[in-house]
Design goal:
Elements: H1 12-25, H2 28-52, H3 57-84, H4 90-104, H5 112-141, E1 148-149, E2 152-153
Antiparallel strand pairs: 1-2
Helix pairs in contact: 1-3, 1-5, 2-3, 2-5, 3-4, 3-5, 4-5
Length: 160
Amino acid sequence: MTIRTPPIEDHPDLASLRLRYEEAAETPTAQVVEGLTFLAGLYLAISPWVVGFTSHSSLTASNVFTGVALAVLALCYATMYGRSHRIAWVAPIVSAWAIVAPWLVSGPAPSVGAIVSNVIVGLVGLACTIAMMSVGRRSAARPAGLGMSSAGPLREGRAP
């Protein structure tokens, strides 16, 4: 006799965990952090032209790729945090790379402006991504069962 188990996507615990992550992503704090992370990524991608160090091709390429990656991760967190929280650990690493890249990429020594730009945007990105990870962890650490939202208690099977 074979016992048929339902797919994991239908498990009630998984659905409640996804709901908690989505609620965490909808808080004003999370929205500010996601927006700042996105803007940090965009600035990092265009910083070679803003600051003027496009002659350092390796640092320019690093900033463009790193900035686009950070902006895409921020968009993932903003639009589907419940499904993208498993890769939240990538964004702090990307931000940390932005901090150390001026010293580690090949080529001529970058200007002071390029170094300062990378360090500042890397620190902003690092702070924002760690904050975003903590928002998700605080949400996941909440006890299961009936939760509270800004509209009042959540009832089983109903979203506010």
